[in-house]
Automatic annotation (TrEMBL):
Pfam families noted in UniProt: Methyltrans_SAM
GO biological process assignments: methylation; rRNA processing
UniProt GO MF annotations: methyltransferase activity
Entry keyword set: Methyltransferase, rRNA processing, S-adenosyl-L-methionine, Transferase
Organism listed in the record: Pseudomonas xionganensis
Keyword Transferase annotated: yes
UniProt keyword Transferase present: yes
Domain S-adenosylmethionine-dependent methyltransferase residue range list: 25-309
Protein name in UniProt: Methyltransferase
Matching InterPro entries: SAM-dep_methyl-trfase, SAM-dependent_MTases_sf
SUPFAM superfamilies per record: S-adenosyl-L-methionine-dependent methyltransferases
Amino acid sequence: MHSTALATLEQHLLHALSPAPSETRRLFHGRGRCWPGLEQISVDWLQGIVLVTLFKQPEDEQLAELQAMLMRLTRNPAWQASGAHSLLLQQRYLADSPSHWLLGEPRGQWPIREHGLHYLLDLGHKQNTGLFLDMRLGRQWVQQQAAGKRVLNLFAYTCGFSVAAIAGGARQVVNLDMARAALSRGRDNHRLNDHDLSKVVFLGHELFKSWGKLSKYGPYDLIIIDPPSFQRGSFVLGKDYPRVLRRLPQLLAADGQVLACCNDPEVGPDYLIQTMAEEAPTLHFSQRLANPPEFPDSQPDSALKALVFQLSRS
């Protein structure tokens, strides 16, 4: 993160804020390896709050230079015209991912919009805010597909897909995640959008012990699988993803669809396509959803994978 790279970042942010997005968006995605020297930094627009995330520890001088550039940015007319009022720096490379408010009043929670839907984010005290911005087109696709459908949302986290599905007219959504606190935030997100919670089920269970319970709510017209790449004690992608895929035909309705996702940069889309063919051969690859343009990647197969599969009983 040398001086030339920081100058590039500054110009990129000035351009991205002129004007600022009307909804939450990523402003700069260094992890796509398109800008040398900036591979370990991302910047997000949270509708008045700018969140800068560092994924690797810089030298002390580099960190000081970054902070000086960011404070200089806050004095630029583009910043002032954008409506930005707060600047938050998160150090993801440290234990507990501490965050520091460089400008503005600390806020533990913050409401944002995406495609007209409302979500509540956690700021300053958790590693993740509660909504992965690179999946916004996936959520949009679910909203467009959901009308009248029964949806199963595995590894639901804060239920972003569920919010999108109910907004799209889903008949019912079943959310499953081990983290009950995340599901509680999912309820909050649905309430923010004035959704009918009688259509939404929240199951705080371990997936591999819950197949029977899930079957009782099915069959499902759409199943969403968006697991972590690795979660100690609960999920390891290479070992556990096949165990999920082989269960899908038993859970799906005729002509059902699956949205299978993977965010591991070391795993390309062929892994999911080949593993699905081996574990659930009646499900056929249909398409890979595009990633948002604000997430450019010099190696597309390393970027987020969101693949659609279609069930065929014949």
